[in-house]
């Protein structure tokens, strides 16, 4: 999967830019505030329906403009490019695929699977469980056609049970929601566990090419899986009624990464944590490729920040070995080696103007 063409209009400092990216690495170089991250935002908007820097539509639109638009052509390897487009206004949006309007962001995501490494990538390991749940759910969304619906039904049942817990004289209705939530939760848990187990050897392989460290990874369910979730929910009704919410289930599940038995977020430096997150992203790409034969597009913002020179070389070597299309931002091109120059396409960004450039040999 790769983008063969992309046009961005009115996204932050970028008034208009049309790009013909390479199938491999596309590196955008420029000073801070030049607009290079806005390129990645535009691609993310096209594939997800929103910016990765926040959900407020108005902030992404160039000051003084009413809307922003992004369009692109996606080559899925089937011989014909798929044209996609999205327009965002301050209070709404409209998206089309091959001229037909689509109403769900999931339709965009299925046609343009994206993996993002934001500047605060360490949050995957340092913040709450939601980030790590989304990490697993992204893979399952693209691999298991029914998973998106399953997850939606689970969280709908969870909201209903939580509302029922706060109502008086609710025993019969609560019993029904216990049954529904327990059955759906068991399926969600099964999918997440299987994906984590499949991902682990891919993570180890990716990690070994980037850094010399051993990491253990395990998914925990959010309840004692020695018993069916339905039983646990029924047993904890009085506790949950006092709390006013459901205290156990897949919504409490977590992906744990440890180094020598210590949480990776506590054991590793910021640079090492970033390399671990990169290895996870690369493993995700391998997972999708092996499971369904689709390669995602990678968006890697400030890729080399907090990495020493040796680590940068290893990361680029591992990235090129993936053979995926990647859009990368950097402040300077000085540390890129000859292979990156020969394999990739370079762009200079300044004041919202994007220009392709070639290396000047000294």
Topology:
Blueprint: E1 2-11, E2 14-19, E3 25-29, H1 36-48, E4 67-75, E5 81-89, E6 92-97, E7 100-102, H2 105-111, E8 114-117, H3 123-126, H4 129-143, H5 147-165, H6 171-208, E9 216-220, H7 229-235, H8 237-243, E10 254-259, E11 262-263, H9 264-267, H10 270-292, E12 297-300, H11 309-322, E13 326-330, H12 338-343, E14 345-350, E15 353-356
Parallel strand pairs: 3-13, 3-14, 8-12, 12-13
Antiparallel strand pairs: 1-2, 1-4, 4-5, 5-6, 6-7, 9-10, 10-11, 14-15
Structural description of this entry:
This protein is of the alpha/beta class and about 350 residues long. It folds into two domains: about 1-115 and about 295-360, Rossmann fold (3-Layer(aba) Sandwich); about 120-295, Glutathione S-transferase Yfyf (Class Pi), Chain A, domain 2, CATH 1.20.1050. The chain contains twelve helices and 15 strands. It starts with a strand and ends in a 6-residue tail after the last strand. Keywords: ATP-binding, Cytoplasm, DNA damage, DNA repair, DNA replication, DNA-binding, Nucleotide-binding, SOS response. GO terms for molecular function: ATP binding; single-stranded DNA binding. The RecF protein is involved in DNA metabolism; it is required for DNA replication and normal SOS inducibility. RecF binds preferentially to single-stranded, linear DNA. It also seems to bind ATP. This is DNA replication and repair protein RecF.
């Amino acid at each position: 999967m790769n983008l063969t063409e992309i046009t961005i209009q009115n996204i932050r400092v970028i008034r208009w830019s049309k790009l013909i990216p390479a199938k491999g690495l596309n590196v955008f170089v420029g000073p801070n505030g030049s607009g290079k991250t806005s390129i990645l935002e535009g691609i993310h908007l096209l594939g997800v329906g929103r910016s990765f820097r926040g959900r407020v539509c108005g902030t992404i639109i160039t000051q003084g403009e009413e809307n922003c638009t992004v369009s692109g052509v996606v080559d899925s390897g089937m011989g014909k490019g798929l044209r996609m487009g999205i327009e965002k206004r301050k209070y709404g949006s409209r998206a089309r695929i091959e001229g037909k309007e689509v109403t769900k962001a999931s339709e965009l995501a299925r046609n343009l699977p994206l993996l993002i490494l934001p500047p605060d990538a360490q949050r995957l390991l340092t913040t709450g469980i939601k980030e790590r749940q989304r990490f697993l759910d992204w893979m399952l969304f693209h691999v298991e056609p029914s998973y998106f619906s399953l997850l939606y039904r689970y969280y709908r049942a969870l909201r209903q049970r939580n509302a029922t817990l706060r109502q008086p004289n609710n025993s019969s209705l609560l019993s029904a929601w216990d049954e529904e939530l327990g059955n759906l939760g068991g399926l969600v848990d099964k999918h997440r566990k299987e994906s984590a187990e499949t991902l682990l050897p891919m993570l180890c392989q990716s990690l070994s090419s980037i850094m010399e460290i051993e990491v253990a990874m395990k998914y925990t369910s959010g309840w004692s899986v020695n018993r069916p979730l339905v039983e646990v929910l029924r047993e904890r009704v009085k506790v949950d009624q006092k709390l006013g919410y459901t205290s156990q289930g897949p919504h409490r599940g977590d992906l744990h990464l440890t180094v020598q038995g210590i949480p990776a977020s506590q054991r590793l430096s910021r640079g090492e944590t970033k390399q671990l997150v990169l290895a996870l992203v690369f493993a995700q790409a391998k997972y999708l490729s092996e499971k369904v034969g689709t390669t995602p597009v990678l968006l890697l913002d400030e890729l080399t920040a907090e990495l020493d020179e040796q680590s940068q070389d290893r990361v680029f070597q591992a990235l090129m070995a993936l053979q995926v299309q990647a859009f990368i931002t950097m402040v300077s091109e000085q540390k890129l080696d000859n292979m990156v120059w020969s394999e990739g396409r370079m762009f200079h960004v300044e004041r919202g103007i994007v220009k392709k450039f070639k290396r000047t040999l000294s």
